[in-house]
Amino acid sequence: MAAAPMVEAKALVKRFGNVEAVRGIDVQVRTGEAFGFLGPNGAGKSSTMRMIASTSPRSDGDLRVLGMDPDVDGPRIRARLGSVPQQDTLDTELTVRQNLQIYGRYFGMSRAAVRRKATELMEFAQLSDRADDPVDTLSGGMKRRLTIARSLVNDPDLLLLDEPTTGLDPQARHMLWDRLFRLKAGGVTLLITSHYMDEVEQLCDRLVVMDDARIVAEGSPSELIARYSTREVLELRFPPGEQGGVAERVAELGERVEELPDRVLVYTGDGERALEQVHGRDVRPVSSLVRRSTLEDVFLRLTGRTLVD
Amino acid sequence: MRMSSTTSAATGAAASSAPARRGLLLRMLPAPLYTGRARALLERSAMVYSRAWLVFVSGVVEPLLYLLAFQVGFGKLVEEVTGPGGQTMNYVAFVAPALLAASAMNGAVFDSTFNVFFKFRYNKTYDAMLATPLGPLDIALGEIGWAVLRGGLYAVAFLGVMAGFGLATSPWALLLVPVALLVSFAFAAIGMVCATFLKSPSQFDFVQLAVMPMFLLSTTFYPLSVYPEPLQYAVQCLPLYHGVELTRGLAVGVLDVSMLGHVAYLLVLAAAGAYFTAKRLAGLLLR
């Protein structure tokens, strides 16, 4: 049983009419890991997530979640999943506490069990002092925390988080990440989609990069960075209109040079040395920055585009 | 319909995934559609209304106001009318059971269109439910069930007042309550299917457009015989007509076999409504 993967997809396809939202992907998620789907909006992450959540039938290919087929055992699979959808679906007619209690009842838990669980989860989500407030009065970050708390009501084996921190301020994001780390430490398998590379880098043991309904790379964050990028990146910014031709002039200073609308990126093992050489060529950026490579650079390398516009 | 791939792939074995209690429906229907937890939705509705129980008062009062208007006003002008079995009867006693059926219809339609529409379109309440083991038929039955409970409550209150006014003259009148439940179920089920087709709140006018004529024309205020023959057939197609026939007959204790037909009509409507609601929810939310 321990060897059975949490999720196993082979040549998984999702079609909406003539549109192929997912074009034959292979994925394996192991028990206890945090697994990420990284990609821009429209890459097929959410469609994949919904198929795994057993709320969207697959169009083709094979899918096993917790060793079961969602087409046959949907309710049994969902009984062991937690799901944090992209858009909050909290029950606006109920209070914070009631949201947690009734959700537990949907899972068939006893009244006593949901009462106990609601109290525990409000503690976890730091919402105890808002227990009897209607959810409409909560801030965006609080609603997100409540959604995550709600997804834990059935003690899920697998937690699906679709863009968990989109639209949150940095403080709220870090608080959410902290909660997710704790869950992972507690043995919950996490499946996270995001178009924030820092989120995936922080949270995930392994990830797939999705673009245009396909998987374009797979590995741990550090593996992917080592495989597709250099150790360091030199960013050069120029005043508007003065960037033209720069990329060619610094081309051989790095292993690779990317030109974005607002800056030029030089991929190199030693950013400081490259910057000296840039100055030596009489190229004068208004600002420069040497940093480590991130998954954003991996994505740029693989697709020629940035993740977040 | 798009959901066919989910349901048709489901086997009987899948039903074993359902929770402990396994009723007839559970054995008949594939697990992805129904897991036997519709009661959880009733509990939810009870939670919501525990803070807004005053709305029940309006549901009880409205039909009573109608009744009062007829008792003190209209009834003075029209004193007698030919009722069930050809007997001559007091006009208010003729209208009262029909009003009971009509109020069961109104309450159910309101509950299942307005309330359902906002949960379905805007609040994503059903999306959240479908992420749990609940299936679309659990949702349909749970929501319809709430409308039925409300309808039953109003019917009991209304029947009490009818008895007080001396308008229920037969012990059979007690059966007005289960009939009101059946009428509520049928209209809630049909109303919920319709709610899944509504795109914006302005389209509620269409619902009114269907309900208002039904209320006025289903022999609520006068016997079927006032219509010319072709129109009589049309009126007999209206669902509320069948509810009115049942309540009016039972109120004075005039029973006949045609009542079984009326019951069957409403039962079919109820079952079809619940089934197609579940299909619509699955087609729209589980795609």
Automatic annotation (TrEMBL), chain B:
Protein name as annotated: Transport permease protein
Chain ranges passing through the membrane: 52-70, 91-110, 156-174, 180-198, 205-224, 259-278
Record-annotated ABC transmembrane type-2 domain positions: 54-284
Originating species: Prauserella halophila
Membrane disposition: Multi-pass membrane protein
Compartment(s) of residence: Cell membrane; Membrane
One Pfam family here: ABC2_membrane
Cleaved signal peptide residues: none
Family designation: Belongs to the ABC-2 integral membrane protein family.
InterPro entries per record: ABC2_TM, ABC2_TM_bact-type, ABC_2_transport, Nod_factor_ABC_transporter
Keywords tagged on the record: Antibiotic resistance, Cell membrane, Membrane, Transmembrane, Transmembrane helix, Transport
